[in-house]
Amino acid sequence: MELPSFEDLPVAGKRVLLRVDFNVPLKDGQVVDDLRIRAAVPTIEALLGRGAAVICCSHLGRPKGQRNPDYSLAPVAEELAGLLGRTVRVARDPDGPPEDLEGLAPGDVALLENLRFDPREERNDSTFAAELASLADAYVSDAFGAVHRAHASTAAIAGLLPHAAGYLLLKEVEVLSRVTEKPEHPLVVVLGGAKVSDKIGVVRNLLDKADAILIGGAMANTFLAATGLDVGSSRIEADRLGEVADTLKAAEAAGVRVELPDDLVVASAFDPDAAASVVRAEAIPAASMALDVGPSTRARFADEIKGAATVLWNGPMGVFEWESFSAGTRAVAEAVAGAPGFTVVGGGDSAAALAAFGLTEGPSHISTGGGASLEFLEGRELPGLVALTTG
User: Quick one: which of 111, 223, 247, 318 could link to 325 by a disulfide (CB 3.0–4.6 Å)?
Assistant: First the structure.
């Protein structure tokens, strides 16, 4: 996909509305993880360097169309100001108001209040998009984590202003396209997390591209059950068993190896203090549930990753937040961080795991958009990208 670059927009002396993804975790009014804020800084600084005034806009959380101080972007503005080394003006409302931006001059930065305080944002409302557009002379999209949503600030607005993509969005599309369109082989895809339903589309879309697909996390339970194994009290998606069985057959026909856990760390309760034990995948006790992959699987998956030319990882191998069930995710994270090939991590929990283990410097690319990256990898059209090419 060829996106227009903001470097081709004339922005000197103009106001640019920059859609960023500042949907970051907060605790006690402070930003806990500033990855997404830091990711937007290069585009902001480039626009400022070219003589623009930058008006950033973003959503934060799910305030359900109501003003809620718990979801205010004020703490984000403070964090951004520190990263930029300059004042960031905070507007009171998602659409300004215009008087809050009065006197905004080239070199200045402002941040609109949480877009989702206005219910029209998520409805892709044309009137709200027009109100946003009235604040600026051009629009730049740099919020990869939001482009899979057809919202006013990601879709409708593109038809109202000269528009283009920022550095982050261009980079995300370039990297993920490299995986889906022209990967170096062998391509090893590592998928984990809770739900098969979230990622079965990725498996199917990559069957003609991947050399091996490694399945861990709770989604592996459904795959194991689809092969006929008894997975005890492990979480499965029973309504997906037929689809998984068909996918395994399709993978075999395509010559793609789907590697499932051969051993698992199980416990009798979903509890961080539950006693953990390692069992073979075919010998899970009836009253036990799988909460991580076992040592044999860890070693096998790590070897696959280290031998790959391209690696895509999305989803933890177990409940990595709990020490007793973190070894599988740590092993994959370490293998990905140390692999010699081109390594891409698909955001969300995988990015959080890398941060928890101090391994964020290792992978070639860490995506800022969990849901957006999954939909891109499934081959879906993302409304925010389509709007930039057709709006």
Answer: 318
Specify whether 303 is located in the same domain as 193: yes
Mean pLDDT computed over 50-55: 98
Q: Are residues 153 and 197 in the same domain?
A: no
Looking at the chain, how many residues does it have?
391
pTM exceeds cut of 0.70: yes
Is pLDDT of 391 > 70? no
Distance CA 172, CA 169 (A): 5
Please tell me whether residues 166 and 187 are part of one structural domain: no
Write the pLDDT tens digit of every residue in 102-147: 999 999 999 999 999 999 999 999 999 999 999 999 999 999 999 9
CA atoms within 13 A on the CB side of 243: 15
Reply yes or no on whether the pLDDT at 375 is more than 90.
yes
Counting Cβ atoms within 10 Å, is residue 220 exposed (0-12), middle (13-18) or buried (19+)?
A: buried
Let me know if residue 390 belongs to a domain.
no
CA-to-CA dists, residue 310 to 18, 162, 191, 234, angstroms:
32, 36, 14, 31
Q: Does residue 216 have an active-site annotation?
A: no
Domain check: are 160 and 240 in the same one?
Answer: no
371 is catalytic: yes
Kind and range of the H or E element at 290? strand 289-293
348 a catalytic residue: yes
Which of 15, 36, 209, 298 is flagged as catalytic? Answer: 36
Domain holding 268, by residue range, is 183-377
User: Choosing from 14, 50, 178, 195, which is the catalytic residue?
Assistant: 195
Q: Do 44 and 19 touch, CB atoms closer than 8 A?
A: no
Are 192 and 153 part of one and the same domain?
no
Residues 6+ apart with CB under 8 A from 134: 98
Task: Please count the CA atoms within 13 angstroms of the CA of 201 that sit on its side-chain side.
Answer: 11
Which amino acid is located at 183 in the chain?
P
Set 65, 159, 307, 371: catalytic member: 371
Question: Choosing from 145, 347, 348, 384, which is the catalytic residue?
Answer: 348
